[in-house]
Amino acid sequence: MDHTKRILVTGGAGYIGSHTVVELLESGYDVVVLDNLSNSSEEALRRVRELTGASEQRLQFQAVDLTDGVALDAAVAKSAPISACIHFAGLKAVGESVEQPLRYYRNNLIGTLNLLQSLNRHGCRRFVFSSSATVYGQAEKVPISETSPLGATNPYGKTKLFIEEFLRDLHASPHGGRDWHILILRYFNPVGAHASGRIGEDPVGIPNNLMPFIAQVAVGRREFLSVYGNDYPTPDGTGVRDYIHVVDLAKGHVAALEKLEKDEANVGCVAVNLGTGRGYSVLEMVKAFEKASGRRIPYKIVARRPGDAAVVYADPSFAKTFLGWEAKLGIDEMCASTWKWQSENPHGYRKEGSD
């Protein structure tokens, strides 16, 4: 195995992680996935092997919880030498984070601190962090660029922002900080699935995001979609967001690794938005999904959720100039691939009746 191309991927069995692992393998990287499977399934990795033809040597998996520092360090030692780490692992539901803030701070912050300390001990200092547009909080103007003010409004978003601060401070440290080369990728709203329909978003319990909820309504698992507010200052009154196809997002991570490999000297600790620069409303997404699926999506208008902004979309221009990356897939591909995944896997990776 070419150790210069071995990538450690935390949370690699999850939604964005599994799609990124596909793109990494297809780009010639070997991958070691660390995941505690708390909100994911090892079946996703089995299907990634099936899709890519990767051997168990090229795609390795270790079940480990990042909050267990001893187990994590043993897993990193077993995986070394590692060229770079992509860090997806973390709890990610906004509403749940408000209800269980200490659980989110313990899992996301301590897990990341353990990971950074272990990577440092084992000589891996190229790091790609899975951040989020939630770090911009209530953005005052759109489009949102990387220089927009930061200020998360919920514990989940704060964990992303605090980890960004860890990384900025780590790089600024006079004791080896300049040895670190860090890319912080701020995602907007990932949707869609691999074109094969074999892997996709498989939330445990009630979905927190719009697209899997719409898909579950279409397939008959949910009765109707709740639309939170139709009195926003937008064309149809519903909230507008920047939805990005998960395959485009996955390719953004490959572009980030290539930047670290080929232009390390110009990467200190840099944040990059990954979005499309185009917003769609909730009702536009519903209509597009009805078109893709041929199913009607019943919905009910309910009260706004506190803290939801009317319009959020990215300025993605820096990603294009700095990483040479831009989103290519549009709303039709997002909806068609989601429908293929959901219709062929109505219960996700689980068997019928087990969720």
- CATH class term of the largest domain: Alpha Beta
- The helix tally amounts to 11
Structural class: alpha/beta
Assign the CATH topology of the largest domain. Answer: Rossmann fold
Q: In which order are the strands of the major sheet placed?
A: 3-2-1-4-5-6-11
- The CATH architecture of the largest domain: 3-Layer(aba) Sandwich
Determine the CATH superfamily of the largest domain. NAD(P)-binding Rossmann-like Domain
Through-space gap between termini? 39 Å
Approximate shape: globular
**What pattern of helices and strands is seen along the backbone?**
EHEHEHEHHEHEEHEEEHEEHEEHH
Unreliable segments of 5+ consecutive residues: none
**β-strand amount:** 15-25%
What is the alpha-carbon Rg in Å?
19 Å
* Number of separate domains: 2
Counting copies of identical and different chains, the oligomeric state is: single chain
Helical percentage: 25-40%
Sheet of most strands: 7 strands, parallel
> How many strands appear in the DSSP assignment?
14
Annotate the secondary structure layout:
Blueprint: E1 6-10, H1 15-26, E2 30-35, H2 42-52, E3 59-63, H3 69-79, E4 84-87, H4 94-99, H5 101-121, E5 126-132, H6 155-172, E6 181-187, E7 189-191, H7 210-218, E8 225-228, E9 240-241, E10 243-245, H8 246-262, E11 269-274, E12 280-281, H9 282-293, E13 299-302, E14 311-312, H10 317-323, H11 331-344
Parallel strand pairs: 1-2, 1-4, 2-3, 4-5, 5-6, 6-11, 7-10, 8-13, 9-14
Antiparallel strand pairs: 9-12
Helix pairs in contact: 1-2, 1-8, 3-5, 5-6, 7-9, 7-11, 9-11
EC number: 5.1.3.2
Family: Belongs to the NAD(P)-dependent epimerase/dehydratase family.
Enzyme class: isomerase
